[in-house]
Predict the structure.
Amino acid sequence: MFLVKRDNFNKTYIIKGLITSLFFSAFIYLAHFNIEYKILDTILGLVSLYLVLKIDKKALFVAGYFIGIFWFFWVGNSFEYYNLGYLSFFIPLFFGLGYGIIFFIIGVFDFTFYRAFILFVLSFIHPFGFNWFIPELLFINSFLDTSKISFALILLSLFILIEFPKKTKILAVISLLFTYTNSGQYIENPPNIKISMPQLNISQDQKWLKSNIPDLVENNLKLIDNAIKEKKNLIILPETVFPVVLNKRHELLAKLLKKSHFIDIIAGALYLEEGNYYNATYHISKGEALVAKKVVLVPFGEEIPFPKFLTDFINKIFFDGAEDYKKAASPTDFVINGVKFRNAICYEATSDKIFQNLDGVKYMIAISNNAWFTPSTEPTLQKMLLKYYAKKYNITIFHSVNGSKNTIIRP
């Protein structure tokens, strides 16, 4: 009988945790299939947080485990391009275990206020520098605001709903009203620049083959020529669209410099300086090239976020001794036709650091290569994060991507 009761209990918290994780992750998958209704996302977000505040800690561990998988299963896709395909199965489990522990911590004490407070605090904490888990992102396509203050008010309203007497539960509604936003109707006009953003879909396994590089380069040059014919002022090409160390390809760079007298060119490529490799954006204009080095590197992708001795060991075991990319100390701005743009390369476009010292900059050019992860929900989650930061910093983002859809994201 004891075993039967224990088995039923296990099923109970597994079911509760799984249901919570489904509510907590639904907004990503709905958006992935272009199902976006503000009222639906509002309800799903509120229900998911309510469940996090109510279910027992063992169920919370299960919830966190599946949330880690549902949000980040796609991270493992990239490892096959490092000849580490055998890790693709274990990476989602690692994320599941990590977020399972985080959610278990939320439920250590069965006090609603404690849970709400820890959840709010965790929205500021990003283990190993990976900051794509932002709980307020639940409301990015809803009627509710995604600022930290609004997230605190949402948690407060749920705390009131759960803990306060019936006569005072109206305070929960009042608290929630302060988080209402109508930002979806806000329209920021783009700068007076005719921009070309060609859609590229080069698979990652083909992108870096030496035999394919001449054709890829030639196609890029044709895209630039077409933009010139269409009398565009600017062409934006994705991250590492030139799969070479561009500043060492003098003949190719000379061609781009020549074309830049007719159009400004933004393109991603590698940059080599003093023996260090950088993931970079090249702004080629009027016969000159300005290089913007990446500021925020991808944890475990472009850098290992551990002390050097451990980093060297991991790189030796898993990456044939390759060194981490180097990074710049501060962001770079490009001036195009008198308009200033902040540069961002993929992951760093979803980091607060790249938005430091904007000094009135209202536009960003973000370039990405999502072929590492597609097909998956990664581009959907990335787009939501870009919307989050566009709203947070009141900036319009021109996002040029290989492997998923180009977008212009307004605050």
Summary: Residues 2-184 form one domain. The two ends are 58 Å apart (CA to CA). Residues 2-32 form the longest helix (31 residues). The chain has two domains: 2-184, 195-409.
